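Review form for a predicted model. The reviewer records the input and the model, then writes brief findings.
Reviewer: anonymous (R2)
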Amino acid sequence: MSVEENKICFSNNIETLNKWQIFYQWLLPIEQNQNQSQNLINFQQVRIQDFIETGRGLGAIRDMKAFETILSIPVEYILSLLNPKIKEEYEALLDKIEIKDTFIRAIICLLCEKFKDSNSFWKPWFDILPETIDVPIYWHEQDLLLSESFRLIKFIKKRKLSIIATNIEYIIKFSKANPHLLPIEFATIENLSWALTILQSRSFWLDMQDIYSLVPLIDMVNHEMYFGSENSSNGISRYRYSSASKNFTFTILRNYKAGDQVMNCYGQGPTIEYLSLYGWVPNEPNLSDTIQLQLDEDFLQNIDQLADKNDFITKLLSFYSAKENKDIVNVRSKLNITAGRFCWTIICILRILHTNIQEFEIIKSKHQFTDSNLDYEPNDSENQLQEIFPSNDIYKIVNLTEKQVPWVSIENEIKVCSTISRSIIGLMQHYTTTIKEDEELLKNGNLSYSKYLAISFRKQEKFFFMHVAGYFEILRRIFSAQFYGEIKNKEKINDLKRDIEILNSSPFFKENFNHYYKNYVELE
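Model under review:
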């Protein structure tokens, strides 16, 4: 069944189709007004339709070339303080009670317009928005526990407390001051949670204007993973607001064929963020996924000079990160390993912990800190710190034959790799199912969506843990072969080549291995 065949194409019940038809009619003035301008391309390129992989989104009506601006939404349709009508109605009231946070200001504007119901200009858009979004803050506790992820459970509980403790205070404050705009009975945790979820999953952050904006139609463009250069978080599309034209535009950065789904990249975030903000788990490997690793006390008790090393690590890393943050990092911190780019902190800490007495004395001799302000006073050169912890590739393994980092021996690297892989395997002991069992459970068509997401997250987390542990185990074997002289054994070389092929084929670690380890392993 099709309504406005060129614009809306999906099967559903009549009531829902009518809402989408009203929404389309609401958007028609955009086309009618802007078709007169040859510089704008609006809603002539795409249609609203359902896709098997992502659900409802925007599909290309015709072939489109990269760098075409395919959607342009005038400011009158944007629900944010960019809109002169919203600005006039709410900005002074928000300033009067000193609500400065841009996100909370956006929440209040959204709630006030939602309360207007049929008197709101955005009523046709509100009617097609989901009443609830299946994100973990709405889940029953048993569904959250089904994820078997300590990190997710803690993250969501903290998030719920944040909603209640932080945001509701401001909503009630505005409501008491302006009951005609937002009655106290409407300022509930349920309505706040809805507004919060809508903004987190659909809004666009406009850095130049320091404003969160909700942009109907463009907010329907679904997400696709993109891992490009560090300076580009989105090689798929570009959006911007022009103060001159008063339009919010969406430009594609790649070619599309007719029938393709038009995509956007919401940013390079970990799976826990996608699940908590948008209510889905990526199917493909996520290079932004992170493991929180904490060194266990049994391991730390067997470290020589632990107190001295902990003190040195705390001072060194606190100083090194002082320009960016004031967080104190020590051996009992929770340490992160990120797939696309391993966090340097854990590598640095483990290298120092595994040094012997002589090696530790060498590194201490290169750095002194005053107790008052932890000033760095190198007795060699300004490059000493960067030689030990290079600023660009902070966890890079240098060629030991050049002796740039003499205290990082091959034996030390073997211990580092062993510690990481062993610790991650320990993290996996609490799971009650295997990945294969999870895959079978996901084939069950009777699962609720929240249960499906919980199991999907659990499977993805285990998959990532196994890859990280396997990665460092393979590196340990490579380093061990070099350390014990097995690198000249032809049979061993063939085994190591297979290990390297595994690293190169891993969707998570190909980049890490090629950039940071390949020059360290010479097999020919």
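Findings: The mean pLDDT is 77.
Further findings: DSSP finds 18 helices and twelve strands in the chain.
Recommendation: see findings above.
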